Amino acid sequence: MRDRFVGFAFAAAELLVETDEVGTIHFATGAFRRWFAMSAEELIGRSLASLLSPADQATAALCFSLAAIRGRVAPVSVHLANAEATPMALAGLCRPDAPHAICFTLGRLPAGNGPESELLSSEWLAEAMQTQIAEGTISALGLIEIAGLSSLPVGIDGERHRQMQVQISSTLARAAGPDSRTQRLAEGRYGMLLGGGIEVDDVVGRLQEFLKAIPEAAHAQVRGSGIALTTDGGLTKQQASAAMRYALGRFAEGGIDAVQRAGFADGLIGFMNQANARARSARAAISKGRFKLRFQPIVSLATEAIHHYEALLRPIPTDQNPGSDTQEFVSFIEAVGLAEELDLAVMSQVLEIMRSAPWASVAINVSGVSAQSASFREKAVPMIRDAVARHNLRPLIELTETAEINNLKEAATTVAELRAAGAEMCLDDFGTGAASYRYLRDFRVDFVKIDGSFVRRAETDARAHGMIISIVELANFVGAKVIAEMIETTEQAKLMREAGIDFGQGWLFGKPGHLPGTAP
Questions:
Q1: Sequence-distant (≥ 6) Cβ neighbours of residue 449 within 8 angstroms
Q2: Is the separation of the CB atoms in 422 and 388 below 8 Å?
Q3: What is the pTM of this model?
Q4: What is the mean pLDDT of residues 39-52?
Q5: SS (H, E, C) 359-391
Q6: What's the pLDDT score for residue 21?
Q7: Less Cβ around it within 10 Å: N or C end of the chain?
């Protein structure tokens, strides 16, 4: 049987690997010396994902999910983890004689068919960080910021620019050591998980030397900062993980200066100490309902009729919590352990508003932190059951990925009980992290919402469009409808409709406002 697969694969491929269901390679053959300067035998025991560029980790995760559910993976565009970032087509097929073995082929793409941009997401690094904090295998989070890349001349654009980004990632990975994890988070911003005594300053020096050798980047300036991981002072691993995720989010949006303003100049303990006063203010605001709710319509892409609304939190600034950015506020709430209180307060207020408009179905966001909490479930399920049974309301719960779900059993119980109480369930921001696919496997949901980053890039990026097609196929197979968010143009709506997506959300269909039929 294997000989037949090899023969089939090399009719149109240069590399073949056979993996188990989690991606570990146990057979490889093909031109590996050509692309990686190593033999096929040297790959045994490594992961398939290690052959792909960091930007293609999302694609790899999707491939394993598709293979497990469909038994095959249609060709998708990826790049190899070599110096040239060679574009390849990756396809997979489960062996019929060994269902847990998957044969993946990698073949050259025709010229001009490669993707034009990378998937950028702090979630990939955050998920690895969560695991390594639990295992105690990292000592610090390293943050690397490069100033000057965005002002490079036009000649560095396109393929040359993309190759340089891959080379920067490779340089950082080599400088950080074999046990590190490096991820590009935004233009010129990279996060790293450091262990084994590696110092951020050493990494900065190596990268600065590399950039000086590139004429277009010779004047770029590299800056680094490290956040030591220590649970001294009573900080639990869960608190440390939440705080580090918050630091990643601040860095991706505002760089090292934003991280220091958030209180991380003195490490995790410094952040927690500075955050205590803000957390007390936030808890008081939550208990008194000091936040606004805005409602955005989600429409049928076929008819543009409103299907339901999403309730969106809008924090009210205070002296202790001066910011009004919702994502920053929610990330902070999760970092200091107040997610459950916030989610219950929002759920209570949304359900109360819905009683004034019982005709409207409304989606309520619930954090992954809350979903794995038995105490949250004990309070939330009766609230939903009462709203459905006594008031004939139609709530929908959106499970957000702002925090990783470690206890899948507890979360699955929460999802099942909320559905049994009468709420439909939706996975939010699907596709931005590897956890999305685990959730779709373990939770029974009614909707999947594709992250807006794919929608924005789908018109010009073949890979983003291909990911959308694959997500639709995967969701439909498990019986879930698909929602695309951040649709702003008629062209985007048409593209999403043609991709088989059921519902759309975005400014094209309506900005967040008050729920029709209720008081503003």
A1: 398, 426, 427, 428, 429, 430, 482, 483, 484, 485, 505
A2: yes
A3: 0.70
A4: 88
A5: CCEEEEEECHHHHCCHHHHHHHHHHHHHHHHCC
A6: 79
A7: C
Measure the CA–CA gap between 177 and 207, rounded to whole angstroms.
Answer: 13
What single letter denotes the amino acid at residue 160? R
Residue-wise DSSP of 245-275: HHHHHHHHHHHHHHHHHTTGGGHHHHHHHHH
Q: Which amino acid is at 494?
A: K
Both tokens assigned to 18: 């056979």
Site of tokens 């949901």: 445
Tokens linked to 302: 């076929």
CATH label, 122-274, candidates 3.30.70.270, 3.40.50.300, 1.10.3720.10, 3.40.190.290: 3.30.70.270
E-strand ranges in 148-271 read 181-186, 189-194, 221-228
Q: Locate 75 and state its tokens.
A: 């060709």
- In CATH terms, the fold of domain 289-505 is TIM Barrel (3.20.20)
Tokens 């009719």 -> residue: 11
Structure confidence by residue, pLDDT tens digits, 495-512: 999 999 999 999 999 999
